[in-house]
Amino acid sequence: MIADVIGAAVEAESPGYIRKTFRNLDEILALKSVPELLSGEWEVGRFTDDTQMTICVAEWLASDANLDGKSLVERFCRAYEPWRHYGPGVRLILESFPKARERWTDLATAMFPQGSYGNGSAMRVGPVGLFFHNDLPGLIEAARTSSVTTHSHYLAVQGATLQAAAVAIATRAGFDANQFLNTLTVALSHFEVRGENTSVYRTALGRIAQGISQGVSPLKMSALLGNGIKAQEAVPMAIYCFLANRDSFEKSVEAAVFLGGDTDTIASMTGSISGAALGEPGIPERWLRRITETIYTPEKVRQIAHQLHSVGQSRKFKAK
Ligand SMILES: [Mg+2]
Known about the structure:
The chain contains 17 helices and 2 strands. The chain has about 325 residues and is mainly α.
């Protein structure tokens, strides 16, 4: 949530502009508002669609025992506030759903016939990683179910799965970058068993391993991995921002925001992984105090996260 709040203030800006204008993330959070892309002002302190949908996924995991996709879309629809910078594909799906409940599975291909490979399902999947942190098959199934509701392209499903797996691995102590990346490769092999092509993410994981071993900066890596709205760019980039700054939540989120591009989403995904690794002490209180939300406050989101974690430890849900 906090990384989304920070990233939203500089969404779609260039890295050059962000670096020239702000020395650090505190200076971004010191802004009261920024001009909106189309009209009006964006209040700094609000979260965007990334956090709104992540909360839906968390509540779905914590309370829907069957984990079916339709009930997740219903949650997305109830929560939907268009001003939170939803992408056009998800807007169309959520606005059509009330009139197309019986054909809801067709909605994911309404705008993109092959299904969307945007990063919209990876950006909200963090809670799946927390919930299934000890259960890779369960994680893979739930990541797929949650993704295909809006993003059914195989690159979106694989990207969401890798992001969830990154969060799950991050909850374990004492891993090095190579072990981390090897476990992500194991997650990919589950797609290969199903006959899916995983070369896009295999190539990206190889580049990440090489970049980390050579100490390449996230900004330099973004020329190779990309930092846009495609899942296959944003997910590897978020993993890189985390792995390059494993010991610091602040530095990993700063690296993601200072890339420019899809800042709110890459930062939220980086923050999900880093938060899972470092826990609450890593997240600066002074940043959380800048959040201006009244319903989903940091305290409320903290409660949901703890509930999710304890439900996940005590029950074995079977994902459908
Ligand atoms: Mg967003």
